From TrEMBL:
<dbReference type="Pfam" id="PF13472">
    <property type="entry name" value="Lipase_GDSL_2"/>
</dbReference>
<dbReference type="InterPro" id="IPR013830">
    <property type="entry name" value="SGNH_hydro"/>
</dbReference>
<keyword id="KW-0378">Hydrolase</keyword>
<protein>
    <submittedName>
        <fullName>SGNH/GDSL hydrolase family protein</fullName>
    </submittedName>
</protein>
<feature type="domain" description="SGNH hydrolase-type esterase">
    <location>
        <begin position="9"/>
        <end position="185"/>
    </location>
</feature>
<dbReference type="InterPro" id="IPR036514">
    <property type="entry name" value="SGNH_hydro_sf"/>
</dbReference>
<dbReference type="GO" id="GO:0016787">
    <property type="term" value="F:hydrolase activity"/>
</dbReference>
Amino acid sequence: MDNILVYSDSLTWGIIPNTRKRLSFDERWPGVMENLLLEKGKSVRVIENCLNGRRTVWNDPFRPGRDGSQGLAQVIEMHSPLKLVILMLGINDFQCTHNISVALSGQGLVKLINIIRQAQVEPGMPIPEIMVVAPPHLKKARGVIAYKLEGAELRSQGLSAEYAIIAQAYQTLYFDAASVVETSAIDGIHLDKGQHAILGKVLANRVSATVLAK
């Protein structure tokens, strides 16, 4: 069986826009991806490690544990052997508590890539492949948490392009989620149920054709 780790934030956790409720596993894109890969005859398990508010490498001054680099090496050890790690982070780097450029967010991504590759897994276990998934473009934030991402739709412009450059430089797989899905019209931040289904299907096909075809 091949283990796939998804390391992400609330977009993948499955928060229902403008609520504190959560989509079921089968409705979230990792669950959609796992089910479709199983239907294709792939022996896989998709492991979610998704935390609301997680940044690449910055702390939240109000909620602990949101620096995505902290504990990542241990997460890799915990779930090894891993075939693939999918990273979809970056949106929370542009919360109002930070003055972060897309270039700095990109350097946060670089740190995560290096941590994954340097994790102290057991002897003989593989270093997993990495797929960077650039998050969909933010719209103007609305609703109960809009204040956290005020202006982030402007400050995060160019993030997909920055992540693509880093993925090429560090020889990871890359997918731009904005090429197939968009954030919800309800809050401008998260994914509606239908968008989870689309992203899960596309990534299942991408993972099947690349990582699991080897």
